[in-house]
Amino acid sequence: MPRTRRRLGKHLGSIGLVSLAAIGALGFTGCIAGEDDGPCVSDQMFFAEQVWAPILSNNCIACHTSNGAAKDSSLVLRGSSEAGFLDTNYEIMKNAASLQQDGVSQLLAMPTGGTSSRKHPGGVVIQPGSEEFKALEELVNRFNEPSSCETNLSATFTGVQLATPAETLRKASLSLVGRLPTDAEEDAIEAGGIRALDPILDKMMTEEAFYTRLKEIYNDQFLTDRYLGNEDAVQLLNDISYYNPYWYDQFFEGANADPKAMEDAIGKFGAYNADDLYNKLRTWTNRGVAREPLELVAHVVRENRPFSEILTANYIMVNPFSAKSFMLSDLPFKNDADPAEFIEAQIPSLPHAGVLTSPMFLNRFPTTETNRNRARARMVYQFFLGTDILKTGQQPLDQTLITEVNPTLNAAACIQCHAEMDPVAAQFRHWDQRGEFDPMTPPLDDMRPPGFKGEKTPYEQLPQGLQWLAPRVAADPRFGLSAVYIVFEGLTGQKPLVAPQDPKAPDFSAEFDAYLAEYTEFSKIAREFQASNYDLKVVVKQIIHSPYFRAKNSGALDAAGKARLGEVGMGRLITPEQLHRKVQAVLGYPWRPRAYEDNGGTYDYLLRGDAYRMLYGGIDSADVVKRVTSPNGIMANIGERMANEMSCVSVPRDLWKATEERTLFPYVETSFEPEDKNGFPVEPAVEAIKKNIQYLHKHILGESLPEGHPEIERTYKLFLETYREGVKGMSDMSQPEGKYSTWLPGPCRVENDYWTRTPLPEEDRLQQDPNYVIRSWMTVVTYMLSDYHFLYE
Fold this sequence. Notes:
With about 800 residues, the protein is mainly alpha-helical. It folds into 6 domains: about 20-150, no CATH class; about 160-200, no CATH class; about 225-355, no CATH class; about 365-470, no CATH class; about 475-560, no CATH class; about 575-790, no CATH class. The protein contains 30 helices and 8 strands. It has helices at about 20-25, 45-60, 85-95, 105-110, 130-145, 165-175, 185-190, 195-205, 210-220, 260-270, 275-290, 290-300, 310, 320-325, 360-365, 375-385, 405-410, 410-425, 465-475, 475-490, 510-530, 535-545, 545-550, 560-565, 575-585, 635-655, 685-700, 710-730, 775-785, 790, and strands spanning about 100, 105, 160, 315-320, 345, 450, 455, 550-555. Strands 1-2 form a two-stranded antiparallel sheet. A two-stranded antiparallel sheet has the order 3-8. It is flat. This is DUF1588 domain-containing protein.
């Protein structure tokens, strides 16, 4: 019968938790405290804190690994670089503890030197009666009589201030769908608190903007947007027999060119002329081919399929134009002229296995004669098993110690990585460096045979090896963790923590505490993900609910607290793509040099690689593949330019509109001056100005400030000082050349429709600011747009 309580007792081990108060700060308490000598701790947490950290990682891991001296024993541990290694090692230890040696559990007999019937080859590692031995003894007792204590992380974040439900809603809305919450969503949160958030998130995750965001998150991993430009994607399909990448050339060259067909195509696809038709067909085809793996991710989530289908899908995603490059016809498109419509399709000669057989994935991670698909196998482990396999072995290797023939197969120093990587790599052997499939590729006799986790691929399924592999990877517990890792990084901008390696390091305790808290939270989310039949939306919601997304402040922290909580919560410099969407969501206008649609395209500063996307920390998926998360001088200047230019565009246009149509100024008019001609306050105007400032703090910065708050008073002071300087400058006739004009700067004038550029009637234009009120408001909005709370989330 399981015991209802387990206490940490006196065995605090060597990870630096020397008081029950410190243990309580970690929050791993699950039962009501009584008269015993410590808080209730779950079995898994006891193992992590008292056995793994001070004992196994110190004394045992060197030998008890897949290439160590004890690789053939019943105790082969997993390294900390593998996703879920603590849970895996817990089960390994549990199995080993059940083995008896002369009536004693093997976990207690062997590290103390063994018994008369069998000695420990490593000698005495742990002295009987020592604190380490008592911890192992307690672990064995826990295996025999499991505790009912549950892991509880609540106290881990003691002193941490979480975002309010309304603040969490705003942050989630901007992050997931690039817009502010609706009034109905805010009302629901006001009425129901944080419990009302999930239905709102569920609805948000049906919006197309969410799938744009999801594709951004996964492109940060796959980097297949490298091929979005020109014909970079379609040219990778050239000379492969079952592709016709340049299908659109039929309209323009050769004996089959048909002027009537071209004329019909110009009309059908909305082209201006033959050149425009060529550019459209080329761009839409290339984009369809390049985006195929990302569209698969979005499609699986959109259709509420198990996320494992990104690996097991027996189809490829195509739009009406890439379908022709893949030589597919008679597909049921709703609109075969819409490049944004993607549907499932099968290439008859290919054994599809989701992303694994995507031409873009295979080209983005190519192989060579000597690499033999090991790079592709490494990506399988990284993307779908949450494991950097290169870190499972010692790096770099001392090559002078490797003397075996075929070291990847025989050398102990190489086996730890290659024993797992090479069977997966062998599954790709029918796909060459360009991603062309050849079912007749001969086997490689000097390499481990295809398989996964010790299971070999049946001979008759070798040509479909990736189809055999995909469901096994998807069923691995690490698959769930890998999805959690990717979504977490996408939503927070932070990489998951890595377990510290050196138990003797002075900061090991604090780093391990932080890692353990995050590991426990992610493991919980991964289990819920698996229980939901791999519904990725569950992962998104759970991360948004977690302190890793919601934490916004804390009380005073000591050094250990800073190490534990330093990477938690808000404070992420948002990506250029997110900033672009936030600017438009808050102001109603995007940041562009011109507002109109230019021949079907736009020049958005923060989305274009030839403008500010790269300079503001973005990636091009080719040469720059890591986002900049700490601003530099160039990025700061871009933020300031954005704030200046967008206040110039948005403030006059908003004040030009009717009051009920405004986004920024519902409480003031251009005639509302804070002082009269004698410098005395105009109280009704001052009250309205401060009320609008309070509104702007909420609308632009998400700050709900009460009347009279110091921040409102500071902002009002900025407005007032700008107004006074402007009025003085316009009335100072002693220096005519320096006199402030009553005219707004040219780009700030409202002289045409923003979107169409249609000129406005002269009487409807807003060109002057005779009392300097508009420019005072421009200063306020510039101030807010360049604020930390706008540029960071």
